[in-house]
Amino acid sequence: MARVRRVGEFELIARYFAPLAREFEGAGGLQSDNAFLPADARHDLVVKTDTIVAGVHFLADEQPGRVAAKALRVCLSDLAAGGSTPFVYQLSLALPTNWQEPWVAAFAKGLAADQRRFGIALCGGDTVVTPGPLTITITAFGRVARGKGVTRAGARAGDELWVSGTIGDGALGLLAAQGALPALTARQRAYLEDRYRRPQPRCTLGPLLPGIATAMADVSDGLLADSVHIADASRLAVSIERDDVPLSPGARAAVAADPRLWAKVLGGGDDYELVMAVPVRRRAALQAAAGSAGIRITRIGCFARGSGVAVTAGGRAIKAARKGYVHF
């Protein structure tokens, strides 16, 4: 019997679900993580839904406050990539059959702390019990000036590729949590673990970028994958200089000890930084916005006519060992 090929995540979306969104322009053909809905004469709503599952997106024995932070912050990261500020969110909580009230209390306490930190409020949702693992779905709403939301599809040939913060900490942080980076110091492992467990969405920078960035995404699937998402949506090619990719001291020590970990750095995901296409003429404006937000930014590549991704190291072409995380 011939083996039936299973389609990948993005092929599945394009084949079966994108056609369902054709009649709504704000869906953008489902090529971006966000949808854009008219709100009033001055604002659009930026809408993002994300689901995280125990044992897949976070460690099964993770502390409830950290689970809450990750569930909310991965959505806030996408709102930042749309150029919006947080507004409200809805929560769908599927608790396993052996759930305990103290866990829910600590989870709610974690949500409350992040609501204060990011200026967002709960506005509804659903709670059920499941025979499967703990599953949390959040739909977050942000606000952006009417018609100014940033998608993946606006990059132009000649735009520079910039990224916020440091890359690779999320994927390496998971390895550190699993005890797989013994060469690092305890302090370096703790820093990387925290970056994996508690993402830092760039909510102060993202809303400053409409009118500066032509396209934007957050680094959730991996730097290579999310850069390619922008390139594909914009019908362009993208090139990345690996040695320009900003690393934290812990990540730098990890790849120095084992260069094979570059594949995790570039493709592992879970960084929740912003990756941006920015015209050269807007470079100074970008740097001013980043300075105002107090966030480091780094130029790591550029967009050109064509398709696909090219990675160089020291100016020489190298093979990209991994292009990003996919669920299927």
Give a description of the structure.
With 328 residues, the chain is of the alpha+beta class. It folds into 2 domains: 9-145, PurM-like, N-terminal domain (60s Ribosomal Protein L30, Chain: A, 2-Layer Sandwich), CATH 3.30.1330.10; 160-318, Phosphoribosyl-aminoimidazole Synthetase, Chain A, domain 2. It has 9 helices and 12 strands. A 7-stranded mixed β-sheet has the order 7-9-6-10-8-11-12, sandwiched between helices. Strands 1-2-5-3-4 form a 5-stranded mixed β-sheet, with helices on one face. The longest helix has 18 residues, at 64-81. It is globular.
Rg, alpha carbons: 19 Å
On the 0-100 scale, what is the average pLDDT?
Answer: 90
Number of domains: 2
Beta strand count: 12
Briefly note the CATH topology name of the largest domain. Answer: Phosphoribosyl-aminoimidazole Synthetase, Chain A, domain 2
Structural class: alpha+beta
* CATH C-level of the largest domain: Alpha Beta
Distance separating the two termini: 22 Å
Please identify, by name, the CATH architecture of the largest domain: Alpha-Beta Complex
Element string (H = helix, E = strand)? HEEHEHEEEHHEHEHHEHEEE
